Amino acid sequence: MEQQRRDNVSAERRDGSELDRPGGYFYGFQRTWNLPALSARPGGAVSIDPAPDVALLARLADLEEREVVRRLEEAHDLFLMRVDGEPASYGWSASGAAHIGGLELHLTVPPGERYLWDFVTLPAYRGRGLYPLLLQEIIGRQRGEASWFWIGHETQNLASRSGILKAGFRPAGRVWWLRSGELGFIGAAESSRELAHGAARALGLKHLHTAPGEDHPATEHV
Q1: CA 222, CA 220: separation in Å to the nearest integer?
Q2: Residue 216 scores a pLDDT above 70
Q3: Which of 2, 50, 45 shows the shortest CA–CA distance to 25?
Q4: Where are the alpha helices (DSSP H) in the chain?
Q5: What global pTM score does this model have?
Q6: What are 4-53's pLDDT values in tens digits?
Q7: Where do the domains of the chain lie?
Q8: Which fold is adopted by the domain 2-221?
């Protein structure tokens, strides 16, 4: 709630009426940052399966097998967390082309960065802290090749927000629909300039500052 209040205050300081309605929140993690300690209670031995069977994942995620194959062919890495050998949680790490369904936003993840998406903890394993644990596992395995990791969630998904912050991600800002029908990005009040600019660049969105005349396209952040 405090983050939402800050974002609303930030938006109200803008002169003009280009903002229409808020979209999702966005977070970033830079590979030089330390990963915080977690208090996960998985309830058994944890292992990561980076190449699970396509049919298994399709069944767990209620997807067609061809959709799982499409994601893999588009350079989306799949990570399946198992507890005592049983599937417990999974998520995707994208490079290249990606899509945020809730925003109908197609983006191209910048080289050397990753967009983390479509994370699910199976019902029997929820409440054990597996989500932030899986996020940290992915960062640990890919930070040698990726300088930034990005992740987001819909406005009301407070459970995702909690897990993302526990994993060590920092608030970058929020996506907004503009009255023109386009999408824009406003940095979080506590975000550094580097973090907010990086998020706008990764999303490929116009960066909307809180002062008039400071708006500029994401391409100016490269």
Answers
A1: 6
A2: no
A3: 2
A4: 2-12, 54-61, 65-73, 130-142, 158-167, 193-203
A5: 0.87
A6: 544 544 444 344 457 888 889 999 999 999 999 999 999 999 999 988 89
A7: 2-221
A8: Aminopeptidase (3.40.630)
